[in-house]
Amino acid sequence: MIEPKSTTNGTSFINLTQIVITSTKQTCLMQVRQTSIQGLIELTPRLFEDERGHFFESYNKPLFESLGLPMDFVQDNQSFSTKGVLRGLHMQNQPFAQGKLVRVISGQVLDIAVDLRPDSPTFGQYEGFLLDAKRANMAYIPEGFAHGFVALEDSVFSYKCTNVYNKAAESGIIWNDPDLNIDWGVANPIVSEKDKELKLFREIFPQAVV
């Protein structure tokens, strides 16, 4: 039987670096955390603050190129969720699989990404990100992951996608799957009827569960 586990512990990351991209007109400082799941990273931009408020770069093509991340995002999505709403776990099957760059514009969410790449050494494991508008941190989730989040406050959630939405390719895993055993940190989340009907992990990957 698989042994899914959380990798949210603060000591779980592989490295913590600062990437500086210099162009003719500007310098961008970005903190990058590579998680223990290959390809899944957290990015925290530097906030330039003064008495008026703050400014930061939410996307920088040279930075993404330096990290080997996709630059060709083709669809932007945005949702509003009241406190306690849980959305997920969602994914799209090939050839419409999506990579996602996710962040919150306002509020705070616990964002979950589950590695569903059968050949990955971390197959069946998940990572949690506390995404906070005050920090402006983001997560890049590659293709081959199921994704979901729970709103810890009323939150506006934004994500850039590497592929367009395709209804026929929609799939997902139920949020409280017993094999994945995800700790969402909430007792009774608000879940849509559609998400309540999502499949179990073992229904999609029977070979992974004994």
Automatic annotation (TrEMBL):
<dbReference type="InterPro" id="IPR011051">
    <property type="entry name" value="RmlC_Cupin_sf"/>
</dbReference>
<dbReference type="GO" id="GO:0005829">
    <property type="term" value="C:cytosol"/>
</dbReference>
<dbReference type="InterPro" id="IPR000888">
    <property type="entry name" value="RmlC-like"/>
</dbReference>
<feature type="site" description="Participates in a stacking interaction with the thymidine ring of dTDP-4-oxo-6-deoxyglucose">
    <location>
        <position position="165"/>
    </location>
</feature>
<protein>
    <recommendedName>
        <fullName>dTDP-4-dehydrorhamnose 3,5-epimerase</fullName>
        <ecNumber>5.1.3.13</ecNumber>
    </recommendedName>
</protein>
<comment type="subunit">
    <text>Homodimer.</text>
</comment>
<dbReference type="GO" id="GO:0019305">
    <property type="term" value="P:dTDP-rhamnose biosynthetic process"/>
</dbReference>
<dbReference type="GO" id="GO:0008830">
    <property type="term" value="F:dTDP-4-dehydrorhamnose 3,5-epimerase activity"/>
</dbReference>
<dbReference type="InterPro" id="IPR014710">
    <property type="entry name" value="RmlC-like_jellyroll"/>
</dbReference>
<feature type="active site" description="Proton donor">
    <location>
        <position position="159"/>
    </location>
</feature>
<feature type="active site" description="Proton acceptor">
    <location>
        <position position="90"/>
    </location>
</feature>
<comment type="function">
    <text>Catalyzes the epimerization of the C3' and C5'positions of dTDP-6-deoxy-D-xylo-4-hexulose, forming dTDP-6-deoxy-L-lyxo-4-hexulose.</text>
</comment>
<comment type="pathway">
    <text>Carbohydrate biosynthesis; dTDP-L-rhamnose biosynthesis.</text>
</comment>
<keyword id="KW-0413">Isomerase</keyword>
<dbReference type="GO" id="GO:0000271">
    <property type="term" value="P:polysaccharide biosynthetic process"/>
</dbReference>
<comment type="similarity">
    <text>Belongs to the dTDP-4-dehydrorhamnose 3,5-epimerase family.</text>
</comment>
<dbReference type="Pfam" id="PF00908">
    <property type="entry name" value="dTDP_sugar_isom"/>
</dbReference>
